[in-house]
Amino acid sequence: MLLTLPATAAMAVFFVAPIAIFVVYSFLTAQLYDVSRPFTFDAYAAALDSPLNRTLARNSIEIGLLSAVCSVALALPVAYWLRYATGRWRMVVLFLITASMFASYLVRIYAWRTMLGEHGVVNSALQSLGLIDHPLGFLIFNRFAVTVALVHIFLPYAVLVLFAGFQPIRPGLLEAAQDLGAGSYMRFRRVILPLVAAPALSAFLFVFVLSASDYVTPQFVGGSSGVMLGVQVQANFTTVGNYPLGAATSLLMLAAFVALYLAMRIGLRLARLDRVRFS
Amino acid sequence: MTVRSRGALAITIAALLFLYVPLVVVVLFSFHNTGSLSLPFTGFSLRWYRFVLSDPGFRSALENSLFVAAWTSAVTLVLGTLASFGLARTRSRLRGPLALLFFLPITLPGLFIGLAMLVFFVRTTLNLSLTTVIIAHCVYVFPYFLLIAIAALERLDPALEEAAADLGANGWLRFWRVTMPQIWPLLAGATCLAFALSFDEFVITFFVIGPDGTLPLYIWSQLRRTVDPSINVVSTLLMTVTLVLWLAAFLFALRAARRRAASGDELVAEVVPL
C-alpha cells in the first residue's frame, strides 16, 4: 500500500488540486484574465442565460448525438463480424482497426479537410469522373464535416468496446438460435441486442461525451453551422479572458454528461438489461 | 463459419475503407511533386520531406516532443509500476477510493483536464513550459499505464512467488527473479504506449504549453497558416512514430500472452486492450 504513495501524492497535487481550484474559479468574479472575490453564482447565471451558449450547446448535443449514433451503428456489425467470423482475416482486421486508433487526432481532422474541401480529393475525383461540373460546397465547413471527422476519430474505440462486449457471448448461442429457425434479424433482435445493450450504451456515451466536448474539429472543418460549445469555452480562456464563465460553462457540460450517464444506468436497470448473464 | 454474416462483412470492409482512405491520401500527398493537394496526382517526389526536415521550427518541435514523451513515459513507468504493485497486492479499504482517483483522468474530457491544469499553473505561478506539459501528460497517461500493469499483475500465478519464498528467496530476490521476468514485457509495452500517447497529445497540451511547441502544436500552427504538402509530411512522420511504438507495445503484449500459451481467442482478448 505504501507503494501507491508517490502516485497518490502526485495525483493529489497535479490532478485533484487543479480541479478543486477550477471549481472555485467558477464561483469567483471575473476580471480580465484574472479573478477576484466575492463568491457569486454570476458565472453560472451568465453561462445559462447567454443565447450564444444555448445555440452552441444545441449544436454540441446534436453533433454529439449524431456522431455517437453513427459510430455505434457502424461499430456493431464490425464488432459482430470480428467476434464471430473465422479465419486469419479476422486477426488482420482487428489489427487494422486497433492500429488506426493511433493515427494522430489532428492528422485525422486535417485528412478530412483535404478530403472534403472545395478543391479536395472527393470534389476533384467526382469532377474528373464527370459526375459534377462544379465543386460540391456542402461537404465542408458545416455539421456534416464535423460529424464525419468525429466518427472517424472515435469509431475504432467504439468497435473495441463492442468487441469486448461480444466476448462473453459464445457462438453456440447464435448457432442455437439459428437452428431454432431465427433469421439474422431475429438473432440480432432477440439474442444479441439484449446481451450487448450495456456495452453499446457505454460506447455511445463515450463517443457522445468526447464528441460533444471537442473544441478542435469544429475550428477546422465546422464553419459557422458546426461551431460547438467547447470552442466557446476555449475562447473564454484564451482570447476573451473570462475564466469564471469558461469554468462554469465547462462544469455545466460535465454535469450534463454525468446526468446522462446516470440516466443510462437507470434506463438499463429498468429494462433489466444491466445484469444479463451468459451461461 | 457457422453463423452467417455476409452483411456484417460488407460493413466491416466499408468501415476499413472509411478509416484508411483519408489517412492513405494524407500519406500519398506527402510525396507529391507539386504543391497541390487534390487530384490528379502528378508524380512522386521527396521535395516536401527535404523542405520539412530542413525547417528549424520542425526540428525543435520534434526535439521538444521527444523530450516530453521521454520524461512522461519514464515518470509513468516508475510511479505506475509502484502504484500497480500497491493496488494489486492490497486488501485495504482504501483500494477502491485510490483506484477511483487513479482512473478518473480517463473518464474526463481532455478539454476539462487541460483547462483545470491551465488554471492551476496560472494560480501557482508555474510558468507554462515543457515542464508543465510533462506534468499534464503524466496525469493523462497514468491511468492507461496502470490499467495494463494491474492486469499483468493480476494474471500472475501466486504459487510461483510462494514457491520462491518457501525456497528462501527474500522480497527483492522474488521481485527481480520471479515477478519481473513474468511482467516486464507488458510493462515495456505499457511504457511504449505512454510514449505514443504523450507524443501525439494535443487537446490538453494546447492549454498548458508555453513558447516551445511540440509536433502536434507545430501541425496546428501550420494548419492555420498554409495548406501545402509539408503538413502531410509532418503528419506522416508523426503517425509513423506513434504506429511504430504501438507496434512495439503490441509485440510485447503478444510475447507476454504467448508465454502463457493462451488459446487464440484468449490471445486476442488479451492483446486488444493495448
In short:
The complex is a heterodimer of chains A (279) and B (274). Chain A has 279 residues and is mostly helical. Chain A contains twelve helices and two strands, in the order H-E-E-H-H-H-H-H-H-H-H-H-H-H.
Structural write-up:
The complex is a heterodimer of chains A (279) and B (274). By secondary structure, chain A is mainly alpha-helical. Chain A has twelve helices and two strands; from the N terminus they run H-E-E-H-H-H-H-H-H-H-H-H-H-H. Chain A has helices spanning 5-26, 42-49, 51-84, 88-100, 105-116, 121-128, 143-166, 171-179, 184-212, 217-221, 229-238, 243-270, and strands spanning 29-31, 34-36. In chain A, strands 1-2 form a two-stranded antiparallel sheet. In chain A, a hairpin with a 2-residue loop joins strand 1 and strand 2 (34-36). Chain A is globular and about 70 Å long. The two termini of chain A are 36 Å apart. The mean pLDDT of chain A is 88. Chain B is built from twelve helices and no strands. Chain B is globular. The longest helix of chain B has 33 residues, at 56-88. In chain B, helix 6 (130-154) packs across helix 8 (171-200) and helix 8 (171-200) runs antiparallel to helix 11. The interface between A and B is large, with 93 and 84 residues.
Which terms would index this structure?
heterodimer; A: mainly alpha; two-stranded antiparallel sheet; 72% helix; 2% strand; globular; B: 274 residues; mainly alpha; 77% helix
